[in-house]
């Protein structure tokens, strides 16, 4: 209910205008590593020094023109160049609608494959983000195509709140498959997604356990320490090798927990977004946890 209310209010033009004007000063900077690529690289350097790797994301949503999709694609090629040249330990994550998928499937496909080709050239990696449910099927299709070309250099996100995801996981599992499992942050109807947080949490754990059992590389992307504890118990009891999974969290959220896991020898990664188009991303972060809204409120009162 809290998430639905926040996502609904965020679509109000007055709310959107105020947040876009003052949001970075009112807490968005906690979750976004600056507006430019050089700023983001410096944040990555600092994170790497603490034993944590990074997934870098250039913020943006669905584009409206082909030229915008080309610019977005070029920005990702520049990101891979910058990561390679700077020597930081990071890969990249992208949204297919930002690559032009919503305009033309072939355009999105072309741009994705060009970026994955570049990642393979640098022995790097591209994570394909999962967006709202109308794009689920085509996203998985393009992931499979990119994976066939470069199996070591591309992975995809799976969302625990969708009913279909366990079937997708079982169908897609296989050699060199790499999945990032998340709970899901979009506003979805009950016809396609679990409405109950308890059901989403339980499905999340089932998905992680199924993925690990099938031998997939599994990115456990959650801030829920109870779920992390259950995953640690599972990998210990089933002798899952540590090089088969990693723990991931979002920039600005519970980094101390991730740092502690890194000190214990577990692979860890922070999802670091940057860019000027941060509004939709920030709203989803606020919607996910009431504590993030309280952080925003405190920043507002401190002004």
Count of separate DSSP helical elements: 12
Class, according to the CATH hierarchy? Alpha Beta
Structural class: alpha/beta
Count structural domains.
1
Number of strands: 8
CATH-level-2 architecture = Alpha-Beta Barrel
Largest sheet, in brief, is: 8 strands, parallel, barrel
Low-confidence stretches: 5-10, 294-303
- Give the helix proportion (percent range): 40-55%
Would you tell me which CATH topology applies? TIM Barrel
Cα-to-Cα separation, first versus last residue: 29 Å
How would you describe this structure to a colleague?
With 303 residues, this protein is of the alpha/beta class. It has a single domain, classed as TIM Barrel, CATH 3.20.20. The chain is built from 12 helices and 8 strands. It has helices at residues 2-10, 13-22, 37-48, 66-86, 105-121, 136-149, 165-172, 197-213, 225-237, 255-263, 279-288, 290-302; strands at residues 53-58, 90-94, 126-128, 154-159, 178-182, 217-221, 245-250, 268-274. Strands 1-2-3-4-5-6-7-8 form an 8-stranded parallel barrel, surrounded by 7 helices. Strand 5, helix 8 (197-213) and strand 6 (217-221) form a beta-alpha-beta unit. Helix 4 (66-86) packs parallel to helix 5. The model is unreliable at 5-10 and 294-303 (pLDDT under 50).
């Amino acid at each position: 209910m809290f998430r639905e209310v926040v996502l609904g209010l965020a679509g109000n033009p007055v709310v959107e205008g105020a947040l876009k004007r003052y949001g970075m000063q009112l807490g968005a900077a906690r979750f976004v590593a600056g507006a430019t690529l050089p700023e983001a690289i410096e944040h990555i350097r600092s994170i790497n020094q603490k034993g944590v790797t990074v997934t870098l994301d250039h913020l943006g949503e669905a584009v409206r023109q082909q030229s915008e999709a080309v610019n977005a694609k070029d920005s990702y090629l520049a990101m891979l160049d910058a990561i390679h040249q700077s020597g930081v330990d990071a890969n990249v994550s992208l949204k297919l609608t930002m690559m032009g998928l919503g305009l033309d499937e072939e355009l999105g496909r072309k741009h994705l494959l060009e970026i994955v080709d570049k990642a393979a050239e640098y022995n790097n990696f591209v994570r394909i983000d999962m967006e709202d449910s109308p794009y689920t099927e085509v996203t998985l299709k393009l992931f499979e195509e990119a994976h066939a070309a470069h199996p070591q250099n591309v992975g995809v996100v799976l969302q625990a709140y969708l009913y279909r995801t366990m079937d997708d996981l079982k169908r897609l599992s296989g050699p060199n498959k790499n999945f990032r499992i998340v709970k899901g942050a979009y506003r979805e109807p009950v016809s396609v997604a679990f409405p109950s947080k308890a059901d989403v949490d339980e499905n999340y754990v089932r998905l992680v356990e199924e993925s690990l059992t099938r031998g997939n590389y599994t990115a456990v992307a959650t801030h829920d320490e109870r779920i992390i504890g259950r995953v640690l118990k599972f990998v210990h009891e089933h002798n899952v090798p540590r090089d088969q999974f990693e723990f991931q969290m979002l920039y600005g959220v519970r980094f101390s927990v991730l740092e502690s896991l890194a000190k214990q020898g577990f692979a860890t990664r922070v999802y670091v977004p940057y860019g000027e188009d941060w509004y939709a991303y920030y709203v989803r972060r606020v919607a996910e946890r009431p504590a993030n809204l309280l952080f925003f409120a405190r920043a507002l009162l401190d002004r």
